[in-house]
Amino acid sequence: MSAVRSTPPAPGAAPTSTPVRAVSYAVLALLGIAVAAAGSLVQDGWFPFGLLLALAGCVGLFYGGTVLTGTRAGAWVPSGAWLFTVLALTMSRPEGDAVFPATIGFYLFLLLGAMSGVMCATLPRLPGDGGTPGRLGG
């Protein structure tokens, strides 16, 4: 039998305690709501540069959540909050007001933002994983 050696966490490693991780997920969810609201205002204002800026904010948040927590949930949580907020903002009110007009910019923001959340959450290997590239099993 071989002894299992524990290695010290790398600098900037993911938080390990459950309360810290829970707080980080809550903060990431709030940031997802904020990025969705800000992106909704920016994406159609300076088309196409506003759309690129809004999408860059989405990718930065989703990838940053993955790096911060060291888990795939670090990207799923803010992207879920982002998607929920964007869909909530698309619903028109009885007065006829809506944040998003039915333009190509909105549909690109919705589609590419959701795709960026999925791509960041399904990275093949998490950043700072410490694994060596190569074949499995050998």
Rg value: 18 Å
| Shape label | globular
Low-pLDDT stretches are none
Estimate percent helicity: 55-70%
Domain module count: 1
**How large is the count of helical segments?**
4
> Secondary-structure element sequence?
HHHH
Arithmetic mean of pLDDT: 82
Strand content: under 5%
Distance, first to last CA: 20 Å
**Total DSSP E strands:** 0
Structural class: mainly alpha
Q: How would a crystallographer describe the biggest sheet?
A: none
Describe the model.
By secondary structure, the protein is mostly helical. It is built from four helices and no strands. Helix 2 runs antiparallel to helix 3 (73-90) and helix 3 (73-90) packs antiparallel against helix 4. It is globular and about 45 Å long.
Secondary-structure map with pairings?
Layout: H1 18-42, H2 49-69, H3 73-90, H4 104-121
Helix pairs in contact: 1-2, 1-3, 2-3, 2-4, 3-4
Summary keywords:
mainly alpha; 4 helices; 138 residues; globular
Concise summary:
With 138 residues, the chain is mainly α.
